[in-house]
Design a protein that fits this description.
Elements (H helix, E strand, L loop, with lengths): L1 E9 L3 H19 L2 E6 L4 H7 L5 H8 L3 E6 L14 H11 L4 E7 L12 H4 L4 E7 L9 E6 L2 E6 L5 H17 L3 E6 L5 H14 L6 E6 H10 L6 E4 L1 H13 L10 E3 L5 E3 L18 H14 L3 H16 L2 E2 L9 E2 L2 H10 L2
Parallel strand pairs: 1-2, 1-3, 3-12, 5-10, 8-9, 8-10, 13-14
Antiparallel strand pairs: 4-5, 4-11, 6-7, 11-12
Helix pairs in contact: 1-10, 1-12, 6-7, 8-9, 10-11, 11-12
This protein binds 3-isopropylmalic acid and magnesium ion.
């Protein structure tokens, strides 16, 4: 098969981790007889520096004209002062929205080899952690009206949180379908004791649940979910929630598995085209030092093969290679523990390729 992949190296550690993911994709192409054609675009801080805006029109067009997008990370303190419309993060939100990527899948799995790296006590992690966070990605407070102005003699800020029924319904269906393929347990997270958007969320999720009698669906308030994730994470299988809650809970879910550097994500809409990125940020403090963990990006590339290209054997092959390298005790600095061998970003990419 031939696939056109739009590549955004991005800022901070972005370029280093993307190079390793491309190395792995090239190895897969060679082994399985595919051809991956990469078109590189600028987006985020590097685009601000080069073109004065974080998402040049030409970049956006190339996201719409490809089979999928692979992204490292965007942003950094360097661009903290730029107007909000052209901030690096605005590029990310702009691409998600223009591509219609409403479903963000963030698997959080504790690799048994990394159990020591989890900040939770062994008696909590012993039962394993393997959950899928399904986050609504193009609605809610992120995409409502934002404004700051003088009201009653002082500055006052508003961020409208808006959800329409169809936006809740489509993400709920995505989550029920995923739950069906896993253990048929779904937890829908909201704040229905306070927020109208959450009350509507709950109503629509219950309506959709009627079409999935085989899936056990339970509601959980977001504050309780944050607590349950550290108290008893093995109770979760599939979680579905709105954009802002999903942003926060997915960082928490990833950290309890040992390192946010390991975590991949897929963002999908109606078709098969998606955007794939690690869930961590651009880590400007370690950029250029070869200390980043490329595994989150490499596993994101595996998700691309699985979800957008229908290449499950190829995706399995990458995931097994990652596991094999961890089995041999190789670690990057973020999840290093005693007795293991420390590798830099490049050496980790090469080690994974060596197992494919
Ligand atoms: C994420 C990130 C982004 C988000 C930021 C960079 C806009 O935190 O993908 O989780 O909040 O969605
Ligand atoms: Mg986030």
């Amino acid at each position: 098969m031939e696939k056109k992949i739009t590549v955004i190296r991005g800022d901070g550690i972005g370029p280093e981790i993307v190079i390793e993911a491309l190395r792995v994709l090239d190895r897969i192409a060679e082994k399985f007889g595919h051809r991956f054609v990469y078109q590189e675009i600028l987006a985020g801080g590097s685009a601000i520096d080069a073109c004065g805006t974080s998402l040049p029109e030409e970049s956006l067009q190339k996201c719409l004209d490809c089979d999928s997008v692979l992204l490292g990370a965007v942003g950094g303190p360097k661009w903290d002062g730029v107007p909000k419309e052209i901030r690096p993060e605005a590029a990310l939100l702009g691409i998600r929205s223009a591509m219609g990527l409403y479903a963000n899948l963030r698997p959080a799995r504790l690799f048994p080899q990394l159990a020591d790296a989890s900040p939770l006590k062994p008696e909590i992690t012993r039962q394993g952690i393997d959950l899928m966070m399904v986050r609504e990605l193009i609605g809610g407070a992120y995409f409502g009206e934002h404004r700051t102005g003088e009201e009653n003699g002082e500055l006052t800020a508003h961020d409208d949180m808006v959800y329409a029924e169809h936006e809740i319904e489509r993400i709920a269906r995505t989550a029920f379908e995923i739950a069906r393929k896993r253990s048929s347990r779904l937890i829908s997270v909201d704040k229905a004791n306070v927020l109208d958007t959450s009350r509507l969320w709950r109503k629509v999720v219950h309506r959709v649940a009627a079409d999935y009698p085989d899936v056990a669906c339970t509601d959980m308030l977001v504050d309780n979910t944050a607590m349950q994730l550290v108290k008893n994470p093995s109770q979760f299988d599939v979680i579905v929630t709105e954009n802002l809650f999903g942003d926060i809970l997915s960082d928490e879910a990833s950290m309890i598995t040992g390192s946010i550097g390991m975590m991949a994500s897929a963002s999908l809409g109606e078709g098969t085209r998606g955007m794939y990125e690690p869930i961590h940020g651009s880590a400007p403090d370690i950029a250029g030092t070869d200390r980043a963990n490329p595994i989150g990006t490499i596993l994101s590339a595996a998700m691309m093969l699985r979800y957008s290209f229908g290449m499950s054997a190829e995706a399995d092959c990458i995931e097994q290679a990652v596991s094999a390298v961890l089995d041999e005790g190789f670690r990057t600095a973020d999840c290093m523990s005693e007795g293991c061998t420390l590798l830099g970003c490049k050496a980790m990419g090469e080690a994974i390729c060596g197992k494919i």
